[in-house]
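Minutes, project huddle
Topic: does the predicted pose make sense with pyridoxal-5'-phosphate bound?
PN asked that the exact inputs be recorded in the minutes so nobody has to dig through chat later. Recorded below.
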Amino acid sequence: MSPYTHADDNGYFGRYGGAHLPPHLEAPIAEVAAAYEEARNDPEFIAEYRRLLTDYVGRPSPLFLAQRLTDHLGGAKIYLKREDLNHTGAHKINHCLGEGLLAKRMGKTKLIAETGAGQHGVALATAAALLGLECEIHMGAIDVEKQHMNVVRMEMLGATVVSVETGGRCLKDAVDSAFGTYAQNYENVFFGIGSVVGPHPYPSMVRDFQSVVGEEAREQIMAKEGRLPDVIMACVGGGSNALGLFSGFLEDEDVRIVGVEPAGEGLDTERHAATMSKGADGTLHGMATLLLQDDAGEPSPVHSIASGLDYPGVGPQHAYLKEAGRVEYVSVTDAETLDAFSMLCRLEGIIPALESSHAVAQAIKVAPTMSPDEVIIVNLSGRGDKDVDYIAEVMKGR
Ligand SMILES: *Cc1c(COP(=O)(O)O)cnc(C)c1O
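Predicted holo structure (tokens), as shared on screen:
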């Protein structure tokens, strides 16, 4: 197995990862690790997961040559991996279905999770409805107010949304609240993490569930171009859509791999979430990883125009891939992201999520420096319906 992909038995990628847990959560998370180890080797489990990806999510998602964008930039061919066309509009459904199936296999009756902007909560509530599981989503009170539509969607899907009134009433408080409830009820409850983060086995498990993205993209580019791409790129929040795509190409040393982080209002300001560029070793949410933190090791407040990217940590496999030199991490600003968003709307008729627009922005930067016979694949992780009201406001102010 690849050194880039394989965590050791304790869930470490190099010095990153592991399961840094309070004693009362060690047993429940170890139970998840054991169950996943069994499930991933069970052909029936994998077949059921694949069936849902095909019949429910609508996979494979197309690999689309963005011809007008390519012509406009005058350089490398840009292909978009269309995760925005999935049921529920983003890549998150891929791992939420996997987690839901594992929960059922373990005999759990309920999924629990935290959510920030609500995207993970909606995808998990969707999986819960499909699989006949209860669902409880913890969300900071401030986010409940800001992301009203997602609260409505989760409730329509039958989930209970718990508004968290403690602390700063944001994502961090929602995490604490959800884990607290989980610790009291883990006999019946499965914790559904929303990215390649958290304690082992979650970073490896969520990565495995997302790896279908890279597997498909590899086959699709071989069919269309008869060769591998020169560069692949994806935005990095926690890092799940990125690792999904990257997993298909990590062994191909000639393929350049680029992760794109949010530089927000600039790396020289306090208002960014560029963990890979500016972070240092630390521990957060059960994992050793790179972290934006203050002198006391507390996670820093972070900012991105894309709410799905404003996370002060990053999945441990990314921290390792950076150190190993296999993946380059760059950042683009809010302003560059908005320009990329508009360009994709106007030239291709695709309204992308603001998260995904970060990856598009990086492609816009580098494509003109490459030759027309070179190929870029961009992971278009989600659609922008959720962002249009906000962007309309921002554009008015510009
Ligand atoms: C949540 C989200 C992201 C960020 O999460 P990753 O785990 O880094 O992929 C990116 N794009 C979209 C559309 C999202 O909803």
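Observations noted during the meeting:
- The longest strand covers residues 256-264.
- DSSP finds 16 helices and 14 strands in the chain.
No decisions taken; revisit at the next huddle.
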